[in-house]
Amino acid sequence: MDDIVKQALAKWPNVPHCTGWLLLDRRGNWRMRDEAAQAAGTPGEPIRHTALLGFINRNYEADDAGQWFFQNGPQRVYVELGYTPFVVRLATDHANGTLALTDQASLGFEPAAVYLDDEGGILFTDRSTPARVAVLHDHDLDLFSEHADLASDGQSGEFRWRDGVALKLESVRKSEVERRFGFVASPAARAAGASADH
Question: Which top-level group of life is the source organism from (predicted)?
């Protein structure tokens, strides 16, 4: 977290949280969702400002309930997720020919496990505690398939990550991903549900 954000939190600790205004889409794009986008249920406009993207990525965290947020100074802006809290790109390092995964902030992502959902999506978890879960960008499915062996059942197999390192390909239902990996895809819907209960 940036020092300026920590200072703002210390100065204004009780600023109300914000939901619905920021989305991480299925391809790792941050999108600003104004009132019209929220009302229409559309993803909103992509954020293109490089410095703002860096600020969001450096101050992106999860709370104890598994809701991901961007700490914008003293205000916590909860993030709507297109699928998972992270989106990764798969590429070949041309210097040594090995595969590399990077997340939406262009940071390395070292996979510990790989999953195939029932809609053809590929998910990775990493070695952090708790493990981060990321969906593979759909533009990288061909490269993934070049390094994967799918069993005849279409739901298992292995992914050749490094020479001598193969990760077992496990199946998961897309509808169970959020619960299984402990995150909240829509803090806005959760907040609305909590308000309706009171």
Answer: Bacteria
Chosen CATH of 3-82 out of 3.40.50, 3.10.540, 3.10.490, 3.40.1800: 3.10.540
| Predicted local confidence at residue 95, as pLDDT | 84
Return the structure tokens found at 93: 């390092």
How many whole angstroms separate alpha carbon 53 and alpha carbon 131? Answer: 23
Q: How far is CA 175 from CA 84, 91, 142, in A?
A: 12, 28, 24
**Which residues, given as ranges, of the chain have pLDDT below 70?**
1-2, 4-15, 192-198
Under the phi-then-psi rule, with left for phi > 0, alpha for psi from -120 to 50, and beta for the rest, what region is 14? alpha
Q: How far apart are CA 52 and CA 105, in angstroms?
A: 12
Nearest by Cα to 113 from 128, 123, 105, 101: 123
Cα atoms in the Cβ-side hemisphere of radius 13 Å centred on 172:
22
Model pTM score: 0.88
